[in-house]
Design brief:
Chain lengths: ~220, ~350
Amino acid sequence: MLDFIRLMWIGTIEAMRLNPRAFAYVEAENRTGTVVLAIAIVGGASLLLGQSVILFVNRVRPARFVLSLLLNGIIFTLSLLVWAFAIWLTGRILFPNAIPFATVARLVALGAAPYVFGFLVLLPYAGNFIGKVLAVWSFLVVLAALTTLANGNFGAALICTTIGWVIITVMSATIGRPVIALRNWLWKRLTGSDMEASVQDLLTQFATSEQAEPQRDKGGRR
Amino acid sequence: MILSTLNLLITGLILLIVLGALLAPFESLGWWAGWFGEKPAPPRPDQAAPDARVTEHPAQSALVYLSGIGAIDAASIPQEEIDWGKMAVKRLPGVLVVPDIYPYSVTNAGLTADRTFSKVYRWMEQRRLENPYDALQFVINLRNLFQVAVSADRRYGPIYNLGVANEIVKALQSRGYRVGSGKPVALVGFSGGGQLAVGAASYLAPLLQAPIRVISVGGVMSDDPGLNHLTRLYHLYGEADPVQKLGHWLYAGRWKWFPNSDWNRAAAAGKIEEISMGPMGHNGAKNYFSWTAFTSEGTSHAIATIDKIGDLLAQDGLIDPAALQAARAATDPEARAYEAARIAEAARARASRP
């Protein structure tokens, strides 16, 4: 177990260092799949911990809070796999190759490595900025990993990554809606909250625009 | 060996600070979610009914003091702020003064109250009583500083500031302020208390249905949506106070490149007035509450700060100018005597140093 955690740690750090040797190792070794999968799930859970204000706002109970983290880890991993599939498909069409989907999936899932530190998004005030840094870092990890996979062809890697992203964005707004609805239903069943309340709702609830206007002083006060 | 131990200590300290910052939002978030069982939900505006057992105070306005980040609980604040507050009550006649808020907790629960580390904080409090400049004071400052950051954070602020506003309303009511009376309320916030005052304003205006002013004394304030709910913000700053400038540097919404930010819109609307207090500092011998440092007019910093607040309240009609002058005349001898006593005390302390 400790050895597995050590491997996860090494995989996370080397991916974040954009180390081509690490990417080449993950590409060549099928057995790295379990470690990469664990990194993706931990990344997703850690990211939700960082963004857990949404769970608190919706008054999720402690036990379900933990369940939500795990569930988000799985959902996050699945979304990475969908992205990996879009990238793999794009690569097949635009740059004919025989790279197996599993290889692309392992490398794209490594993009979750920076999100292992997603819990840092919790930090008051600095957290939002850290979240943006992690998102850019994650994209760079995927890009660097695919560049290694494409034998150093950065252009091909960038095209596949970008088109893959556009495909899932368009899909999620169109034919993917039933899947998203299913995900949301599953989320509500397991966490007990549909996460509808946002922090903004609190402000709206307690300080509506009508009440928010500064009051005029009585008795001619300015 | 020594170097590696030092490295280990520094790394451990940094990790502890990061851990403290990471845990900072949980007190208010857990309170909101009902995890700690304090209360299922904060009150809504229409629930902030006046307490029938308390007779309405005759004062025509109220002033709530929110202390700086050195506060351990509502009563245990740095001695300089206590002395200053006692004199402020005497020199601001006809104003209902509420000094007993601990704004670094959403439940007004001080650090020595029923908390996991309350014993540690009690020990620190004891050390501070023996030596006001005790180095461990920085732990308290840091803990409270993180709460200021929680208040300024747009994700956590709405929850944190609601808790503080709720406690302010309760404290006002317990002293005879009638909700719905429309009597203006001024929040005086020192240092981090300035941010907490602006943050709480988002809710205080609708909860109290009264005009809310903030008087920041060296306040470190963010570009908080609470600014939209203020009638006026006065920022008193010392020329020798670099800490209050942090608010300007750290919070992007206060930079001139964002004209549509809450801060810049409030400034453009003339709601924010920045007032120089001369060569006052944030901490140390020349701070805003000092009885031993004097302005060029010969007034101690403590009295100058109180009187500036009095002037602003009078200017806005929250205090009767004649009563204000009378109170100043009546308390001047006491203020002079206090200044002389503190100067003598400081001289004795200097003389006793090896």
